[in-house]
Amino acid sequence: MNKVIISNFAASLFALLNPLGLVPIFISYTARENLVVKRWLALFVSLTALVLLMIFLFTGSSLLTFFGISIDSFRIAGGMILFVIGLGIINGNHKKSSQNMVSEEQNSDFREAQLVYSKIVIPLAMPLLVGPGSIANVILYASEAKADNNNTLFVGLMATIVVICFLIFVILLAGRWLQKLLGDVGLNILSRILGLLVASMGIQFVITGLSNTILNSIAPQILKIR
């Protein structure tokens, strides 16, 4: 059962982060930088995504408890967000920027990467990469793991996040190669397929949340009748 949940989490998180759709944006931001700087920037962006996702994995369910929000209510809200984001990806309405960064004085490639990163971390790492949909997704799965006291599942979610962030690093590094291989049309098609998956998962979240809410409200009444 854990394998099924983890595989679903991996598929949904990868689709929501949509690193393939981020490739053209990353290329436009780093067009004037040399190869070493681009490698550092790919590492910085992927590590930022890792840190953000881990924060929400560990603290997300506590935030729900603090604000008195049930997991089913959050599941419905998260599903609606996923559906809207999925439609936006399908329609090509996700934010892009053609801004090119102006290089500073190059004391070193690492220092240059730090300077560029400080300017592109918002919006590249968040919210374009780690946005409301991926945050909601992580909180939902973390809440379910904690509700079942399933430490093995929680560790699996952590490992999945690490693997996916490593894939983000690899994809950003291979950005120009992917663009040459697939072309702008190919990347666009892949991005829209991911958008369809996100929208479908959002609908499933809403259906599950509504079903649980209805059952939880009807079951006590049935027990009283009996």
TrEMBL record:
It is found in: Cell inner membrane; Cell membrane. Its main location: membrane. It is a multi-pass membrane protein. Keywords: Cell membrane, Membrane, Transmembrane, Transmembrane helix. Signal peptide: none annotated. The keyword Chloroplast does not apply. GO terms for cellular component: plasma membrane. InterPro entries: Multi_antbiot-R_MarC. It comes from the Bacteria. The chain crosses the membrane at residues 6-29, 41-67, 73-91, 120-141, 153-173, 185-207. Belongs to the UPF0056 (MarC) family. This is UPF0056 inner membrane protein.
